[in-house]
Amino acid sequence: MAESISRSLRDGCLEGEHAPALTIEDSLASPLGSHVFDHFLANLASQIADGTSQARGLVLVALNRSPSFYIDLLRRKGVDASLVDKWVRILDCYSDPLGWKDRIPPLTNVQKPSTRENVSFFRDVRDINKLLSSVLDLGKGFVGQGKTRFAVAVDLVSNLLRHTSLPSVAGLLNNLRSNDQISCIFWLIHSDLHEPRVSTALAYVSTVVASVQPIMQLTDEHRSRRDFLWLEKNSCKAKFCVRLKRRNGRVKLLAEELHMDQVGVKFAAVTSENSFVNKSLLPKVQFNLQLSDQERVDRAKVVLPYEHQGNGEAIQIYDGRRSLSDDQKDPHLVQPSTLSAMTDAQANSGNGEIHYIRDSDDEQPDSDEDPDDDLDF
Amino acid sequence: MNPSPPPPPPRDPDLLEEALGLGRGGSPPWRLAFVEDCVETSGAFVLHHFLKRALSTEGDGTVVFLGLAQPFSHYDRVLRKMGCNLSVQRNKNKLHFIDLLNLEFLDEKGENDREIGFMDLYNRILRSIEAIRSKDNNGGWTTIIIDDLSHLEIAAHGSVKHVLDFLQYCRSLTSEMDCFLVILNHEDIHSSDEALQMLSHLDYISDILIKAETLSTGIAADVHGQMTVVIKDAPGGLIKKLHSFQFKVKENGVEFFYPGSRF
Question: Which CDD domains does the annotation name (chain A) (predicted)?
Fold first, then answer.
């Protein structure tokens, strides 16, 4: 399914249709959204460099990470550096999003990082109209006019929403989608930074919504975002849930699994082994709180010294609450009437004995019956 | 003439330094660390620890310290007991202390004053880095320590947006100016929905979280709290490693140890 999304971005849009738009959303419970974004970005950049995509260039709006991060990322993913310089333009909304650096004196004796030709500073992220025209100008700058198209990626819409309203951001994305020169567009949003209506609004602008969700659902106990042990165990894999909107209006829901390895994010079909059922709810501590199977077997075999009658008779277990019928008789159980007959006989013999009858393991420790009720003061 | 005594051998890194990947000197392998504490357990000692380490003779680090919670004399007194003279370090241009007690951005004219206030604060940090990065110190790395984030929120009249904008600019320094950020934040003051979103924002931009909290078993004389260090593979990314140990704050430093290892 990730492959089909990559193909959709590669193939771009049909004449007369809006460009395909992908929303990638995640949360702190499963913070793999950035990796998924990087995956699709590297794939598309590679296809643009190979000339196999409809888009002939890519404009990346970098709000959350520096342009140098993305240039290093594409180099690590094997995209030729010269082709990155030629076909990728980065609109740097990370370094100076509000124009502060223009309003303070420049540094003198400090070596500033070198600027690259394919990186353009953008200094007013609050002006959505200016952002839109900057993206379009950058794209037209290297694909020219005419019918050549380019792709757009926005690395974090959540940052944009901090500076401007939801209608403005939705309008920006919609304007980009409907532009004749846009082949495809995709963006990342952290759903837990916003109200649910934000995700819903962006879903209406999208043709595909890909949600990264935790494999193990949060229980009430884990719902605190500070359950680091739970996050550590579950953060390297996730559910990749995709909602596809077909042109005919049909909405398809699909799911895959994704996990992180040394290279990056990998997608796999959902298997029965990786069930989504919560397993143990026991807290993760440095010692075992449960018995292993072998330990349970061994415990069952232990004969407690004070219940070993020494006369070859079966161990007696008291379970007075069960009403026994003949076919339910447990050979280990002694009926109360038989028990009293035994004690009477032994009492008449004049020798004192202690008979220990172990309670049944079936009896719950927190039963309603109050053991103190047996006391007769 | 007696030869000068040999320098003391470098001490072994403690558990916190090991967890943070801080060897004997050298810059940190991460860029932005948040220190979280609560009313019952103050995390200020972690800032003192970072301050001493950054200014130690073993490395060539420098510090820009934004003092919003305490005056310079407080930190000077504390660090002297730990064997570090902040006044000397300040005179040697290794420490720039920006005194921000009672920081307030006047809001009489409207919202722009908060932005201008934070912009001026960012400018002061840049000037400090400029002063530190003289020809003598140009090759070193700079740690920006903020004590603490809640005072920035107070100065911003509770505006989460302005604080996050300021942090965005501080973050840009980590990539442009080879700086490292250590910020103290009080986790338990955030109860409203907007404030909880603030904590989520911080989680997304940090690559290290150091959490100081009380023992789950209650107060103890010899153990002052437990520390959890969360190492992520990237800002807001996967948890790569989790470290957990306990600590005891002493007059001249902090002792870190694993549970049950002191007795």
Answer: Elp5
Q: Are strands B179-186 and B32-37 parallel, antiparallel or unpaired?
A: parallel
pTM: 0.78
Q: Is the bond into A85 cis (omega within 30 degrees of 0)?
A: no
Contact call for B204 and A193, based on CB within 8 A = yes
How far apart CA A125 and CA A248 sit, in angstroms, is 36
Dihedral pair phi/psi, residue B19, rounded to 5°: -65, -35
Strand segments (E) across A286-360: 317-318, 358-359
**What's the pLDDT tens digit per position in B104-118?**
776 666 666 888 999
What residue in A sits closest to B159 (Cα-Cα)?
A162
Whether B72 has its CB under 8 Å from any CB of chain A: the answer is: no
Residue B211, min C-alpha distance to chain A (Å): 10
What was the ipTM of the complex prediction? 0.86
Give A310's contacts (C-beta < 8 A, 6+ positions apart).
Answer: none
Q: What is the pLDDT of residues A195-220, one digit of tens each?
A: 899 999 999 999 999 999 988 765 55
- Looking at the partner chain, which of A31, A190, A232 has a beta carbon nearest the beta carbon of B237? A31
